[in-house]
Specification:
Blueprint (H helix, E strand, L loop, with lengths): L2 H51 L12 H32 L23
Helix pairs in contact: 1-2
Length: 120
């Protein structure tokens, strides 16, 4: 094998490696986006519950009544379950995404001005 052939083969291998790295980076970006979206959903839901029903367990208060303490303990349990289930869904989504080859494509749209008046 000549030096030129070796260089061409090396160049081809570098291109293959770069393409594989690009695909892996796209998969990682997609996984991170999906993770962020799922977290936003369940954290947002928790926040809505705390803002609406937080008075039941003295949300933001230091001194609690006995009833508020009971509700706080219940809320802590439910909140933990929501986080656990949300995190489980993130793991499942990542596992599912890892089974696919990810490739980002782009679409170029040509925008032309619209003529509103008919020219005579």
């Amino acid at each position: 094998m000549s030096t030129l052939d070796k260089m061409l083969e090396l160049r081809k291998q570098i291109q293959v490696d770069e393409e594989e790295q690009k695909k892996e980076n796209m998969r990682a970006t997609l996984m991170k986006t999906v993770e962020t979206n799922i977290k936003t959903a369940f954290i947002g839901a928790i926040s809505s519950f705390e803002n609406t029903f937080g008075y039941l367990w003295g949300h933001g208060e230091m001194k609690l009544t006995e009833k508020q303490q009971q509700f706080r303990e219940l809320w802590a349990q439910v909140r933990k379950e929501v986080f656990d289930k949300g995190n489980d869904q993130i793991k499942l989504a990542k596992r599912e995404l890892s089974r696919y080859e990810v490739e980002r494509t782009t679409c170029v749209l040509e925008v032309k001005p619209i003529e509103f008046f008919v020219k005579e």
